[in-house]
Each structure stands twice: as C-alpha cells, then as structure tokens.
Hints:
By secondary structure, chain A is mostly helical. Chain A has one domain (61-316): MetI-like fold, CATH 1.10.3720.
Amino acid sequence: MSTIQADPAPPSDPLQEEGSTGRAGDSIFRGLATGAGMIIMLALAGVAIFLVLQSIPALGASGEQAYGADNIVVYIWPLLFGTVLAAVIALVIAAPLSIGVALVISHYAPRRIARLLGYLIDLLAAVPSVVYGLWGRETLQGWVFPVYDWLHDNLGFLPFFEGPVTTGRTILTAGVVLAVMALPIITALCREVFLQTPMMHQEAALALGATRWEMIRMAVFPYARSGITSAVMLGLGRALGETMAVALVLSASGIVTFNLISSQNPSTIAANIALNYANASGTKVNVLIAGGLVLFLVTFAVNFLGRYLAARGRAKA
Amino acid sequence: MTDTLHEPFHTDPSTDLSTHVPLTKPQLPSIATTLAAAVSWGLAGLPALLLSWPIAGWVVVGWILFVLALPTWSGLIEGGRKAVDRLVTILVWSTFALAMLPLVAVIYTVVERGAGALSVEFFTASQQGVLGEGGGIYHAIMGTLIITVIASVISIPIGIMAAVYLVEYGKNNRLSRTLTFLVDVMTGIPSIVAGLFALALFTLLLGPLPRIAIGGSIALSVLMIPIVVRSTEEMLKLVPDELREGALALGVPKWRTITKVVLPTALGGIVTGATLAVARVAGETAPLLLIAGTLRGTNFNPFDGAMQTLPVLIFGEATRGGLAEYVPFQIERAWGAALVLIMIVMLLNLLARVVGSFFSPKTGR
C-alpha cells in the first residue's frame, strides 16, 4: 500500500468544505461514513487486543493445563509445523493447477464459454468447508487409500511415503482437500492478472509467428509473475487458517513427522482448537487462544507479504 | 520483456525463391484432436476391459496415451514448436478437468447420500430427546437463519458506508489508505480466529466459557464486512463521474447525490456482493462452534444460551461417534444437513447472479 504514489496535497474539493452548503445532512452522512470506517479499524484492533489479553495467562501454563506439554512453546510448535506442512502440500498441488485453470479461462476457452467456466470455479469456492471436510472424511479417504498403498509399495524408500498405510485420513488427504479450497482463490487472482496483460504485447507475439504457448510464455508470464506470486501467497493464507476440513479429515496425533501417509499425523493449530475446545476449561482455553494468536500472526504476515508483492507488481507495471 | 521475443525464428539458408517453396506448412487435419483422443481411450479400453480395471485407471491410461500420441503426431508433421503448443493445450485443459472433479464429486456424493435423509420430519423436528433414528434439523436451520440475518444486519450497512467513505470521501488520504490496507488484512483472517475474538470478548463480558448466539453473529461480521467493503468499493468506482458532477451541478447536496444517484446506479453490484458475502458466511463452522455452541433443541433467543446451526450440526454428527447402532443415523443426518446447506448456499449464489444481471448498470462497462 505504501508504494502507491499519493498526491502530497490532494486538490481540495470545494463541495467538501464544511459550511459551504450550510446543510446538516452532509456532515451527518459524512460522519456516518467515517464512523463505519472507524468501526472496522476498532474491530481489527479488538481482534488483536482481545487475543493478546486472553493469551497472557497461557504463558505460564504447563503440564496438565498445557495438554501435557512442558510449556506453551513446546505445545504449539508441533501444531505450527503441521499447519505449515498441510498448507505447503496444498499449495504444491493447487498452484500449478490454478495457473492452468486461470489460463483456460483467460486465454484458451472461447469467450462465451469462459464466463461459464469462471462461474463453475466460483461454485467450487461456494461449497462450505465443513462439506468438503465431510466429503474428505467419508468419501475421499476411501479413494486415496489404494493410491497411498501404491505409493508406499513403489516409493516407500522416500521418507514421505514410509507408511504404514492403515487409513486414508492422513495429512496428505488433508492437503488435497485444502488444495481444492485454495484453488478458486488462486485461480481468481491469476485470471485477473492474465487478463490485464497488454493486448499489444500478445498480438505482437502472435504477429511474429509465435504459437499460443510461446505467446503466453513470452508475453503473459513475464508480465504476470508478481501477480502469480501474490496469488499463491494469498492462497497460502487461506490454507493456513482453514479449520473444519482438516479437523474432519485428519486423524491427528500431534507429532512432528514428514511421513505423509501414516496414521500418525501432525495436527494443525486451527483443527486442534476446533477438536479440543468442547472439553477445555480454565487455562486450557487460554492455551488454545494463544495458538489462535500465533495462527493470526502467521496468516497476517503471509497476507501482508502477498498484498505487498501485488502492490509492488502493480506499481512497476 | 520484449527482448525475449527475439528468439531466432526458423530460417532455412537453403531456401531459395527460385525453387518451389510450399506457401503453407503441413498441418494436422482439424479432427486430429478428436481422432487422437478416440484412439487413445479406445486403446486403453482394451486392457481395461480384459483386466477389469476401475474406471479411474482407464481414464488415466487413456490420458497418458493421448498426451503422448497427439504431440508426437504433431511433431512428425508440423514440427517441434507446434507439438509443444499442442502438448501445453492438452495439459492446460486437463488442469481444468481435474479442478472440476472435486466439485462434481462433492455435489454427487452429497446428493446421493443426503437425499435419503430428507423428509417432512427432517425439516420440522429438532434433535431434542432423539439419539438414533428420526428427529430433524429444524433447530439448526432456524439457528443458521437467525445468526446469519443478524450478521448481515450488522455487516452490510457498515460495509457499504465504509466503501462510501473510501470512494466518495477518502480521496486517497491517510485514513482511507490505512483502511484499505486493514480491509485487505481482514479478508485474510482465518475464520477460527474470528471465533476466538468473539470468545475472548464475551469471556470478558460474561465470564468463562460463554455460549451466546449473538457472539456468532459478531464473529461472522468480522468475516463478512471486508467482503462487502471490497465488492461495494469496486462497484462505486464503476459509477461514472459525469453522474456525480451532473447532480452536484444542479445544486444537490453531496449526501443526496450519493444516496439518490451513486448508490442506486451501483445497486445491482452491491446487492450481488452482499448476497455472495451472506452465502460465504452461512457455511462458516469454526467461529460458531466456539461461541454459538451446540444444542439439541430449538432456541430462538440470540442473546441467551447456545444455538445450533447447520454447519456445526454437520461437524457434530460426523464426529460424535458414540454407540455403534446410532452412528449410521448420525452420518446420514450429517449428509442430509450438508445437502440442505449446499442447496441454501447455491441458491444464494444463483440469486446473486440473477439480481446482478437484473439490476446491472445501464451504463455498460
């Protein structure tokens, strides 16, 4: 945001000067609009302040009150690991797919069909996360089970596929479900950037005899690079904070491992809160809220970086 | 970026105008793609039938054959560059097909497994005193309705007014730039963090472990306001300045210009955005699980006690476990509720599109 060049002295609007019309309606309406903006700022400040206030008691928690961990850091960091691992799996799957889908909508499909295809992708975003979770828990885990078996048999020498394969409800399945949920966001943002590529560059490339792919590689991608990066970052933000899909799909035991297909899976911060909240009491609630604060800070950083990259890309273009 | 365009194009030094040069390069016939696809999946069908593979195996093997066959054929006749272009075209369209797979699969599964649960009782009864078969989701539908409506009543006016401030009054000053940035940040807030915010707020007000439906509405508002601001802002920016200037030139006060000229012109887009925002939060689970809690009976009072909602009911029924004889009924109820929830959300989406095109600005884009 800071890169947007603002006029040092915006031209003063004579109609905006107080008293020039002598009508009370104007100042009241202006006050209402400004007030609405203030409420948003207060709400966001409230989120940060209340989370910090309620996290403070958790700093001293240990043993029983910290779910058996020595202190709050030892408790939260495996969850943070799981959160990042699941989100990274999701992005490894979703990012290339999203770029392809965005290209279909922006450059490959005939214009009339492209609108319809865009709607279909939006519908993918409209399905509630709890429904994806239910689907992952009841249906998808059965489908991926034979695939995991195959991975274990043929690629078992890799640490990721060590197994043993006893369930389909693994962190890899959670990553797949998260990928489905991150895909519409990344697609929508990439599509915007692809459509903004100057038509002249594209037509020039085609006029020189480039095939469609060469045109995209030489004219569209260089222009869209920062936009794609920021889209992926924002998708990462979504995947990091997703709760229900992971809580329903994952059979979690809260350990730290890169083994993606065993029944012993790392849990994520958000899913852990949802699953443990019902029977939490006393300081345990504060411990969970402290986890939420960590999640808030991480997603804040990721989103900030994404927006910053997007703004910088716009300023350069 | 233009320098990357200087890739040497194929110039053959032996080409001489005196000899015969074909004016067109050889091309594959226009049915080549269809033909290659038919042959690929046909060939894959043989072992699939003989070894009775699952359908997924047949599709995958056919796809691999197709990806190999068409570019190879193209490479032999049209040359390498064309072949790469065809390969990429196949891959790009394949990503789209792959992305559609979960949408189709989810909707199919939800309809298949949820349709059996629907009955009159399902829509008119609650879960009060019901453990196994029977009972319904009336209480959860009402809860979702109440909490979502209150969230909309809070969010839509605040969101629209904030957008009015950004577009009509802010003029890129410091406050409006900060606000734009904060709205961006708010868009990225994980839903469970919004729930924790409401929880922390009401813990301070009501004591430990509060369960109150209005808290759910507040948590949903935190998620909903940025969506409304963003979509309204986009729409207000589309309103041509000539309209504002015309009204102001006639001596209309600025606030009347905004309420009578600017907002009505942008109405279609604003309603679409608000409806999509409602659809988005109607399916939110995590914040409601934390603050609105879960209840087997019906509660109409948002200021007192827990209130059941559809997403929380789905989560609860799917994870409850318990006596083995009850589990199948719980799972069926979860699917039935998922079907109802998906229908509500899809209807809202459809409504948003219809309203959007009905009110769409007459100014054109």
